[in-house]
Design goal:
- The protein is about 40% helix and about 20% strand.
- Strand 9, helix 5 and strand 10 form a beta-alpha-beta unit.
- The strands form three sheets. The chain has a seven-stranded parallel β-sheet.
- It has one domain: NADP-dependent oxidoreductase domain (TIM Barrel, Alpha-Beta Barrel), CATH 3.20.20.100.
- The radius of gyration is 18 Å and the shape is globular.
- It is of the alpha/beta class.
- The longest helix is centred in the middle third of the chain and has 15 residues.
Amino acid sequence: MTTLSASGTFKLGDRTVHRMGYGAMQLAGPGVFGPPKDRGEAIKVLRAAVEAGVDHIDTCDYYGPHIVNQIIKEALHPYPANLVLVTKVGARRDAQGQWLPWNSPADLEQAIHDNLRNLGLDVIAAVNFRSMHGMQPTEGAIGAQVEALAELQRKGLIKHIGVSNVTPTQIREARAITPIVCVQNYYNVANRGDDAMVDALAKDGIAYVPFFPLGGFMPLQSDTLADVAKSMGATPLQTALAWLLHRSPNILLIPGTSSVAHLRENLAAADLKLPDDAMAALNGIGAKAH
């Protein structure tokens, strides 16, 4: 039986959550657009996650758009007292499903009200501002957007603020405006560009939440990963998740899936203990990638 406590806990704002969480992105249709093929299965996945002890769910109102948050509400509302729902703002979808910036103060306020309505909440535990300067972290000012969220925080609509798809300079800019409780960037065993950022945030007690921990649209493929997984009696993806949990204590995982069976496989990675030689081998994957 999977024990999420085996992966430990970390602070997310004023809450303490298990480091193995769940990301809801895959509950939408293809391309994170439109309804899922099986809404009933999506509801089962969410309920199974919470029943297994997941207390941190990452979502976004432009998944669908709106649909994923509505499914979360249908599946889990009224929410368990220990459940932390985290969303992100800064983009919208057009009629074709393209991702477009949507980040004026008025846009962000509308996005917060959309999240509150579709999730059935009066206040959101944490909101990430997702920089849209580029599809990867790209320099550019984000102060106006963070200040807009800070104003909504002062109004009592948001408890905590995070940032996503950002550079170290942008994190400093945001932290000069308001406390930042989490950073959500692209990071996994083969993509290690944020190594220094992860360590710096850990020193300051700030959570780092890697998106695409299993590679995203380009799934992880590595002979080393496969070999280590085989030696551990685990799947490569379980091993990649376990590496992240071992990498730094401030890393919170949000692997996503639309399958109950795959959910249980992901959660089982919390129990996987990687010996030093396995960690050394896995660390070498990122070195080779660079």
